[in-house]
Design a protein that fits this description.
Largest sheet: none
Number of domains: 1
Oligomer: single chain
Protein name: Transporter
Helix content: over 70%
InterPro entries: Na/ntran_symport, SNS_sf, YocR/YhdH-like
Shape: globular
Distance between the termini: 47 Å
CATH architecture: Up-down Bundle
Organism: Syntrophotalea acetylenica
Structural class: mainly alpha
Strand content: under 5%
Order of helices and strands: HHHHHHHHHHHHHHHHHHHH
Membrane topology: Multi-pass membrane protein
Bound molecules: 4-fluoro-L-phenylalanine
Radius of gyration: 22 Å
Keywords: Membrane, Symport, Transmembrane, Transmembrane helix, Transport
CATH superfamily: Amino acid/polyamine transporter I
CATH class: Mainly Alpha
Length: 468
């Protein structure tokens, strides 16, 4: 078992680790993206496929990442450097995952910034109901609010700056006094807010329709594209392929049972995504609106629905606070993964590393914030704008490539003995053969298929074929 020279920071408690790792997993992906892709893909059958993907692909890879981190006690680059020989392709996995964390943080923070604007608007009473103010917040007004925001470079930059600043403030405090402490505050708040919104959804007229929509599968609505989307989302939502789980695993005590930890984190993430759907769809249905509103579901449809409900402004405030907390605990894991690299591999101090990387994330996020205004005519890839192009590179290529390398390495090249020890500190050997089968065959094949289709979809094969 490799040990590094300096004593490594560890989580202070099991619950602290679970909340921090679940905080990384539960993010905009759960509350913003999961409901809208479920809506776009027709509901129940998509949800079922998504659950299968989490269990058979996401969970085994999450355990593999936690395992690599805890075994090596290093950041993602250092972990693969410790495990693989110089010049071996496995080392690439570490680099790609850190690069993914870097790229994703830069634009994740821009979207997180939008939630801050909505919080401010809610505080100002922008979503007040007609009965209390006499103003009807129409769909047009909400659309104008959203368009006004994305058309304004300076406003988005300001929010992006503030959001990165908050991440910096937390990560600079370190593993226990920064990340763990804040996860223990933010995650219970997030769960409380979600519970309130869930109860509100269940009491509304559309509750039954929402249950049916989400849990009665209609396989005629399931397309092959939906299956791919479910698989890709399972990856993103569990924070896989971007160094986060390797880094968080590296602070985990050897006494912890990795299998049980991975299971708890994935369960929390999944249950929260489902509850977010059950909080959102009932009110969408009771307002007679469509669930397949796309990415605008949360920023455009939901505020309109809220503004027509009694007490809607408070609900809107709670909802956007929930979204901001979820984004924050995810973003800090992206920043921490990069900070760990500078500390472990380059011997930087935490303060300097955090300040440097947060500054860089702000600068690199600028084009994303300007993507829908100043830079709207710039289309680096196909006809996608800057923001979508960066998202495409990170989510469609970097994440699956690093996930595939991780699954292949752990499935085929790491010693079974070491894996068994890592997975089951408590000796519950029964799960090993199942996990090993999934990480060896099922996960690499599934991730390989996503990668193939993503590459084909963006015409990269055709591009290379054209070169010869
Ligand atoms: N899992 C987060 C979400 O669902 O929003 C996104 C994310 C966070 C991805 C942290 C990757 C990561 F390292």
């Amino acid at each position: 078992m490799p040990e590094s020279s300096s004593p490594r920071a560890l989580w202070g408690s099991r619950i602290g680790f679970i909340l921090a790792a679940a905080g990384s997993a539960v993010g905009l992906g759960n509350i913003w993206k999961f409901p809208y892709i479920t809506g776009n893909n027709g509901g129940g059958a998509f949800v079922l496929v998504y659950l299968i993907c989490i269990a058979l692909v996401g969970l085994p890879i999450m355990m593999a990442e936690l395992m690599i981190g805890r075994y090596t006690r290093r950041d993602a680059v250092g972990a693969f450097r410790t495990l693989a020989r110089p010049g071996s392709p496995w080392r690439l996995a570490g680099w790609i995952s850190i690069l993914a964390a870097f790229v994703i943080l830069s634009y994740y923070s821009v979207v997180a910034g939008w939630t801050l604007e909505y919080i401010l608007r809610a505080v100002q009473g922008a979503f007040r109901t007609p009965a209390t103010t006499g103003t009807v917040e129409t769909a047009e007004q909400v659309r104008a609010l959203f368009d006004g925001l994305i058309e304004s470079g300076p406003r988005q930059l300001l929010w992006h700056f503030l959001f990165i600043g908050v991440c910096l403030g937390i990560v600079i405090g370190g593993v226990q006094k920064g990340i763990e402490r804040w996860s223990k505050i933010l995650m219970p708040l997030l769960l409380g807010l979600l519970a309130l919104l869930f109860v509100n959804g269940m009491l509304s007229d559309g509750a039954r329709q929402a249950w049916v929509f989400m849990f009665r599968p209609d396989f005629s609505k399931l397309t092959s594209g939906a299956v791919l989307e479910a698989l890709g989302h399972a990856f993103f939502t569990l924070s896989l392929g971007m160094a986060a789980m390797i880094t968080y695993g590296s602070y985990l005590s050897r006494a912890e049972n990795l299998f049980a930890s991975g299971l708890r984190i994935a369960l929390l993430d999944t249950v929260i995504a489902l509850i977010a759907g059950l909080a959102i769809f009932p009110i969408v249905f009771s307002a007679g609106m469509q669930p397949g509103a796309g990415p605008g579901l949360v920023f455009q449809t939901i505020p309109v629905v809220f503004s027509n409900l009694p007490g809607g402004n408070i609900l809107a405030l709670l909802f956007f606070l929930l979204l901001a907390f979820a984004a924050l605990t995810s973003a800090i894991s992206l920043l921490e993964s990069q900070v760990a690299y500078l500390i472990d591999e380059r011997d930087w101090g935490r303060k300097r590393a955090t300040a440097f990387l947060a500054g860089l994330a702000f600068l690199v996020g600028i084009p994303s914030a300007l993507s829908s205004n100043l830079l709207q005519h710039i289309t680096p890839i196909a006809n996608l704008g800057v923001f979508d192009s960066i998202d495409l590179i990170a989510s469609n290529y970097l994440l699956p490539i690093s996930g595939l390398l991780t699954a292949l390495y752990v499935g085929w090249f790491w010693s079974d003995q070491e894996e068994k020890q890592e997975l089951m500190a408590d000796g519950s050997v029964w799960i090993y053969p199942l996990w090993h089968f999934l990480i060896r065959f099922v996960a690499p094949i599934a991730v390989g298929i996503i990668l193939y289709y993503k590459i084909e979809e963006t015409g990269l094969f055709a591009f290379f074929a054209g070169l010869f």
